[in-house]
Design goal:
141 residues; Rossmann fold; four-stranded parallel sheet; alpha/beta; single chain
């Protein structure tokens, strides 16, 4: 049984709780073993993955960053996303990026499913990407 660690940056707790809930539901339906690790913000996610990289088959990075009036949003998002990608490539392990990047609170609420919209739950998208990465194998053609 594959083990997946969900790392939840709970700075926006109401939003990320929805991401975690949808991810856990799907993973349990598909019989994955899951653990949850809470971190204060998305900037702490890559270190949490690095510390646990040998213990799990895959990871889900969940969180939310909402743009403010300073460059903080751009700096946090770029450095976090690049580091998550490098960890995945360097260790050959899938890391689903379910971090919402929103220009305002309404967008964030839409992306977690708290407001009805045509946008999918970002946690569920990341979960499905990880499941796909773990189960897809090349087919003979």
């Amino acid at each position: 049984m594959k083990k997946i660690l969900i790392i939840n940056a709970n700075y926006y707790k109401a939003i990320t709780d929805k991401l975690v809930k949808s991810s856990l539901k799907t993973l349990k339906q598909k019989n994955y073993k899951c653990n949850l690790l809470m971190v204060p913000g998305v900037f702490e996610i890559p270190l949490a993955i690095k510390k646990n990289i040998k213990k799990y088959d895959a990871f889900l990075a969940l969180g939310c960053v909402i743009k403010g009036k300073t460059p903080h949003f751009d700096l946090i998002c770029k450095s976090t996303f690049q580091t998550i990608l490098l960890l995945s490539i360097n260790h050959g392990k899938p890391i689903g990026n379910g971090i919402i990047t929103a220009l305002n609170m309404r967008q964030a609420l839409e992306r977690c499913g708290m407001i009805k919209s045509n946008k999918k739950n970002k946690g569920l998208e990341a979960t499905n990407a990880v499941i796909s990465s773990l189960t897809n194998a090349p087919k003979k053609i």
